[in-house]
Amino acid sequence: xxxxxxxxxxxxxxxxxxxxxxxxxxxxxxxxxxxxxxxxxxxxxxxxxxxxxxxxxxxxxxxxxxxxxxxxxxxxxxxxxxxxxxxxxxxxxxxxxxxxxxxxxxxxxxxxxxxxxxxxxxxxxxxxxxxxxxxxxxxxxxxxxxxxxxxxxxxxxxxxxxxxxxxxxxxxxxxxxxxxxxxxxxxxxxxxxxxxxxxxxxxxxxxxxxxxxxxxxxxxxxxxxxxxxxxxxxxxxxxxxxxxxxxxxxxxxxxxxxxxxxxxxxxxxxxxxxxx
Length: 276
Known about the structure:
The protein is mostly helical. It contains 10 helices and 4 strands. The protein has helices spanning about 30-35, 70-85, 90-110, 115-140, 150-160, 160-165, 180-190, 200-220, 225-240, 270-275; strands at about 1-5, 20, 40-45, 65.
């Protein structure tokens, strides 16, 4: 199962947020290529090897710009720090790196909702010096530790992904991490053992469609139940007219639902219809 999340709000974009779930049998690279084939996108990811060919010339994903995740990078140092408190030198080095990454997040947090260009300029002034110091410090630490140590592995994770992790400095649309989609995907992870078997590929696809609609409703402030009632009523009315209409399904997407479907409304859809 894949989750693809779009959210332009951090840089003041106009497109509504959305999450799409895609049912696949594995995380094999050919599924990833199929999902993003011939598109021009910026894609944040967790560093999984299947995303490693993003941007490769001559492939169907040549126009995909891959962006690394600072949360995944930071996690490696936290794990090392928490399990090596008896190693004063190693623990101190990991702690120093964690503090620098935290400072990076602090500076970047000031830019939420700013325009794309304002974010870029602010990051160049405040975040780039932190990134430069962070990279230099990790390179210096590597010279003093064993190549087989877990701290070296954590550092290599960052240095090998330096380009993808630092792209946010030059583009205000890019975030530091994949946290937004991780939050959307968490319910799937929690249910993983209960959904090993969907019954059929069609069952998995149906589950993905409804999950996409429900999570996108939440992102846009709509009550999923009210939205689905409205959606089914509208589609039923269309098909009840006899001839199969040519339907523009875009107008039924969650962000185009009527106001009565908003979360927190006192009247539900049926109450609104009766009142009308």
